[in-house]
């Protein structure tokens, strides 16, 4: 099997994934998964599509991850891994779609508007 690549985005985080056959090693920006995401919750989020298809020990994954915070990065990586797995085996798409791993979460920070302190917050109104 050759290397399969895919892209995942969330907020301002971008994950480029390269999946090849191997032993289940996930390397993010030349660091191990546990070192890059010390939180077990974020590690779980990243591995969700692999665990759903029960292929966690079958593939080695190399990741270029940039932008955003740790939550956005982990969710961008989850999407990228799911997309790569579908490229490898298109029959898996239905199972991953049912779990919501194939959908790009398009929510991002709303821009600040002029004449306001934040996007929707208004300055305090004074009648007199």
Automatic annotation (TrEMBL):
Biased composition (Basic residues): 113-128
UniProt region (Disordered), positions on chain: 106-128
Keywords associated with the record: Ribonucleoprotein, Ribosomal protein
One term under GO cellular component: ribosome
Stored Gene3D superfamilies: 3.30.230.10
HAMAP family according to UniProt: Ribosomal_uS9_B
Family recorded in the similarity comment: Belongs to the universal ribosomal protein uS9 family.
Protein's recorded name: Small ribosomal subunit protein uS9
Organism: Phocaeicola faecium
């Amino acid at each position: 099997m050759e290397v399969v690549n895919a892209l995942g985005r969330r907020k301002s985080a971008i994950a480029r994934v390269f999946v090849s056959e191997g032993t289940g090693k996930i390397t993010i920006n030349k660091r191990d998964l546990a070192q890059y995401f010390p939180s077990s919750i974020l590690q779980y989020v990243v591995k969700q599509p692999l665990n759903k298809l029960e292929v966690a020990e079958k593939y080695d994954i190399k990741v270029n991850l940039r932008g955003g915070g740790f939550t956005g990065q982990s969710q961008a990586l989850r999407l990228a891994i799911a997309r790569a797995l579908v490229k490898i085996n298109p029959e898996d798409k239905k199972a991953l779609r049912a779990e919501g791993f194939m959908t790009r979460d398009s929510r991002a920070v709303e821009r600040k508007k002029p004449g306001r302190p934040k996007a929707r917050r208004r300055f305090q109104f004074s009648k007199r």
